[in-house]
Amino acid sequence: MEDFLSALVFLAMMHWEKLLSSGRFDPLKKTKDPQDSVRTEFEKDYDRIIFSAPFRNLQDKTQVFPLPEHHFVHTRLTHSLEVSSVGRSLGKSVGEFLLEKHPHLSTIGIHAADIGAIVAAAALTHDIGNPPFGHAGEEAISDFFRHHPYGYVWQPYVTSQEWADLCNFEGNAQGFRMLVSKKNGLQLSYATLAAFTKYPRPSLVFERNKERRSQKKYGFFSDQKDDFNHLAEVLGIGKANSDCWLRHPLAFLVEAADDICYSIIDLEDGCTLGLVSVEQTIALLGRILGEKFQPEKLEKYSFESQKLAILRAMAIGKLIEECVQAFKEKEEDILKGVFDQSLTDIIPAAQALSEISNLSVEKIYRSKPVLEKEAAGFQVLEGLLEVFSQALNHKYYQTDLYSGKDRSILRLLPSDFPMEGWGEQTNPYPMLRALVDFISGMTDKFALSLYRKVKGIALPGT
């Protein structure tokens, strides 16, 4: 039996030369990039993302704390830039290791900087699919379809897989959808898209292995399954079971970069806002540093912000070193699909990070400002989904209820919204997917402003 399992693992073995393909995801298979001797394909990915509208919108999306009252704490944009910076450091260090261990990679034009660029670009997009109001926004969209009359009214018209998509909104899957969308025109490289996909499975699976980190959530909607399958075939990514694929190895580094940043930065923001004491914050960061922590050296800094900045930089540097070392040790098991945990769960600082996480839940994520923001997010997103879903339902499915109010509401949808071809005998999933695209793509301010207008709380121009 063990020999049989070993054979299966061998068949699933991934190979770096395929995993690092610089080919681009182009569903139409028609376009090719002109030659560019200055930038690599992976550097182009980074530049395309930076200049894209979905990325710019992150500047007005909540990270943890409400906006804009505290402009000095992190938005999704600043968080993503920091995760990308950490990701580049992780990727370049791992790249140097890979080139030393697999020297043939250099003969096909792979450099350590390429690995860094892939991880940096993928990390830059890791939150691009998040809706307004953070994780509360994800829950609000899911709850609307589960519990609201004009949400679950659609269930009889869609498949069970599609219904699972709607009732379990996932920012990671929304991000994949945005990155492969022809509308956004990014056409990223296969390697960057795969490194972005931390959870390579659909929402509804026959069997989910809870021991595998990559199966904790899902990474693409049912109408993008063929897209991911194509991506996996190009890169030689095998399956963990009939429904779930293995992770691209660099996805572990993207995840680690995010884990490092939100653990350390959320703690720093919480301290800045007075939710966690300076003494407690310093002690927790000191736990990460271990023997390198020398509290007496902090005394030469006059301001608490300086002390926190120094410790934050040192802690992030230490975590990068530990995650790189963990990746080196697990590289072969990752390629075989045997290892499937967060790197930050197996490093020496794992216990210290766990303590920071527990404190953050207690003192930061359940603080009054954060809970107020979440409550507002539920109200706003449910309200927007209600008015648009009701109007669409009345126009195409319960036509006897269609009113002038519905007509006015539908005029507020984007000009490219699919308004033709729906009816009682037609599956509305593509239309509902477009509606969720519209709502989830809003910034916090725009969502709140539109909610006030459609609910008659504020008039246009006020």
Q: Which percent bin holds the helix content? A: 55-70%
CATH class group of the largest domain: Mainly Alpha
Q: Give the C-alpha Rg.
A: 23 Å
Average residue-wise pLDDT: 89
Structural class, from secondary structure content?
mainly alpha
Query: Can you tell me the number of structural domains?
Result: 3
Shape: globular
Q: Main sheet?
A: none
CATH architecture of the largest domain: Orthogonal Bundle
Give the end-to-end Cα distance, rounded to a whole number of Å: 71 Å
Element order: H for helix, E for strand: HHHHHHHHHHHHHHHHHHHHH
**CATH superfamily heading of the largest domain:** Hypothetical protein af1432
Helical stretch count?
A: 21
CATH fold-level label of the largest domain: Hypothetical protein af1432
Number of strands: 0
Question: Any overview of this molecule?
Answer:
The protein has three domains: about 40-250, Hypothetical protein af1432, CATH 1.10.3210.10; about 250-365, putative deoxyguanosinetriphosphate triphosphohydrolase fold (Orthogonal Bundle), CATH 1.10.3410.10; about 370-455, no CATH class. The protein is mainly alpha-helical and about 450 residues long. The protein has helices spanning about 1-10, 15-20, 40-50, 55, 75-100, 105, 110-125, 135-145, 150, 160-165, 170-180, 190-195, 225-235, 250-270, 280-290, 305-335, 350-365, 370-395, 405-410, 430-440, 445-455. InterPro entries: dGTP_triP_hydro_central_sf, dGTP_triphosphohydrolase_C, dGTPase, dGTPase-like, HD/PDEase_dom, HD_domain, PHydrolase_assoc_dom. This is dGTPase. It holds the Pfam family HD. One of its GO terms (molecular function) is dGTPase activity.
